[in-house]
Design brief:
about 1000 residues, alpha/beta, 6-stranded antiparallel sheet, 5-stranded antiparallel sheet, globular
Amino acid sequence: MSTPSIPFTPAADVTAHAATIDVGRIAHELRHHEVTDVLVSGVERAAYSSDASLYRVLPRAIVRPRHTDDVLETLAVARSLGVPITARGAGTSCAGNAVGPGIVMDFSTHMNKVLDLDVANRRAVVEPGAVHQSLQRAVLPHGVRFGPDPSSHTRCTIGGMIGNNACGSRAFAYGKTSDNLLSLEMATAGGELVRLDHGASRDALTAAHPYLGRLDDLVGANLATIRQEFGRFDRQVSGYAMETLLPERGFDVTRFMAGTEGTLGVLTEATVGLVTEPAFRILVVLGYDDMPAAGDAAPLVRQFTPTACEGIDRRLVDVLIARHGAQAVPALPKGSGWLLVEIAGDDRDEVLARAEACLVGCGAVDGRVVLDAAETSALWKVREDGAGLAGRSPKDLPAWPGWEDAAVPPEKLGAYLRDFDALLDTYDLSGLPYGHFGDGCLHIRIDFPLSAPDGTQVLHEFLDESAQLVARYGGSMSGEHGDGRARSEYLSSMYSSQALALFAGVKEIFDPTNLLNPGVLVDPAPAAADVRMAHVPPLTKDLALAYAHDGGDFARAVQRCTGIGKCRASTIGTTNVMCPSYAATGDEKDSTRGRARLLQEMVQGGLSGGFVNDGWRSPEVHEALDLCLSCKGCTSDCPTGIDMPAFKSEVLHQTYKGRLRPRSHYALGQLPRWVRLGHMASGVFNLALAVTGKVPVLKKLAGVDPRRSVPSLARESFRDWCRTNDVGFFEDADRRGVVPENAVVIMVDTFTDHFSPEVGQAAVRVLRRAGWEPFVVERAGCCGLTWISTGQLDGAKKQLRGLIGDLAPVARRHVPVIGLEPSCTAVLRGDAAELLPGDEDAALVARSTSTLAEFLAGDDRWTAPDLSGVDVVAQPHCHHHGVMGWSPDAALLRDAGANLQQLGGCCGLAGNFGVEQGHYEVSVKVAEQQLLPAMDAKPDAALLADGFSCRTQIADLTERRGIHLAQLLDDAQGGQGV
């Protein structure tokens, strides 16, 4: 451990010195010390430059330690070079705790294991990068759980939770992370590996570690300050938890370390306590006139001993409904502010009785007890997605973290909320409040005008007044997220100068050279410095897409990503898709968030020392976007509403506008054009395809991976089949005035027409059995999908306008349009509004177009065939999931009696992505996440895959055959003959 004679180094000096050390030298020294996973490229550094906070701090290097020795060696290099260290888990910190100017150590990549599980003694040993969800999956089958559960539980790490002393919704029952910490192992700034055990005696600790004797002396000299200012209420998380070191608390250094935010040591292992999982949980939803009224009522809930009491605002719910429809939120009681109260226990009758008493005993204007598990899950999801949903303010402006985590004693919450609302009005700011109301903790994102010339000044002044307001209520700047860069400056508002000197004394004992997360808690950096989006100019000129929800501003659109990191969450066991490339590689740059960071660097240009300076053509941007599958999973799964596929298309469009493109853009991006030409001489065309398929060099010339198959054209296209099977042209029937009332038009896409006509044929039979008369339009049009995915947006608009022109007369006659290929249907339902903004025909066609499942589900006369006993493994197309939603398909199949397994994730082919050179390995790894294991587990199940690319991936990687929903229904109804 460093000796006390070393003078404390100011954070500004540490940061300035780090900037002078060449990144190549850092990498060389780390590798010389046998630290092997070191990242120093501009792409990687940009990806790690922010977390879920306001801040952008470009690191010099990233280390992904494989084991404890890597941690110790990295610290040795940091000491020798004078480069600071910032420990990082999932990077979900809202306060800027996980960004730093030196070496960022990402523990989530390798040191992420649950090392030991002792159910009998209710404890688990984990590495710091272990994801909360992974720990829960390991322990829940044994009837126990890790108590704290932040809303980011699907991706946050236990190490990060310890660093921030996270709490989550169920702190009522299980306390903060510190309350569940039994022991830890950490590396000090001086290079010592220390083990600390909860319950160890003060004498033993100070004898083993002399510097802890100095810590004990420091506490002893400040007992009055500690007893008066610390531990006043449960959510007082700001600053160091000095109360845990009091003699009456047993000088508990272990639990003191929780919430120190990586400023005193680097965690390498932790033992956490587990709690018994209650047999029953019941949700009570209480409605109030507004959020302050809900805050007033929150203390009343405590008498019913809940495990959780959460507040959500009506406007937060309205955002979700606007984005995903009314079905996304179960029925809520009357009111504009709600408390979600969870009552739990092992006796169902007793739990239900408490729930009923809570329903009538908390002064609600309305309420309900929710017993349905699906409804309960959906309501909790609204709360979990709060940080993302609140990314747009009530004024529909970008809303930011920064003051999202203040807490006051619960009995003062209602009054604090009223005063806080008044403060927002004073600054003409707004936000959507939610949070842990039972604990007095408020979360809110606020529409600070950060890109304005005076934006950071407004931020500074508002934060200063907010800190003073919280202090007047006896509150804490942070209730669970830590202080970080956002709130450390304002600790002086709630603590005396003696308490602040105490913090400095602790820091000097553990880290006198200030190498560990400098600028946080002690000697803080200004809260309005290093703001990521400060003064970023708008980017609106000559864009190909409308960005209608972002005021036509690409810069604002890419700032939708606030870093909550949901793209890092595992989709295994879920129906989510985002983010398949991150699931395959585990690299931050391959996550939706990582890509957003590079795009944010691009729109910043040279601001704040940025290095992505070549605009749309910047190689760093193209590297980050290369493995984006354009799956559209983020458009539905990320609560911020970000659309990375649109950004990728825009970048490719702008980059290659008027320039020579990659070969695959011509071969695959204009595939429908070549297919239509080939159809005129299909025999010759198929022969050419067959030769190409057998000669790898020809595939390479087309930009296609040699390991990919080349599908051949059907001998008879679907449109040709229609001519001989009484499927008429709509235009002909319309001209003759003989369009029947039961008419429906099938949108004939290129893939159904020329590669899978059997899908269209099955759809015709299913529709006819349902009492409908299918038609097609005369012209063989195209939605422009392949042009969109390759960024040929001028060509895409031309293709799409043609198809809209074909279908608009159908829609004007109120004749339904059914899309069979999900990706093409999604173009009409989603992309068309961005490509053709203000086009009334495009909007009309979008409203008139449905999937087969949506159409059949809306037909009260239709009865599904009996699928009882039929095992169905379904791989929904990603665009189907992201744009239309797959719930109608799932409901149809379950109502028909099928044993349905709906997969999440992506098949991995994703249109042209998996076919292109350089993508094959990632494409296969994506398929290995869920699709291939599910197929292996159920070899006899029907394999449902509506997307042509999904069926192609299945055929390429297995001996199995995927089928479309139309084929499944047709087969169940007798197949051929209608």
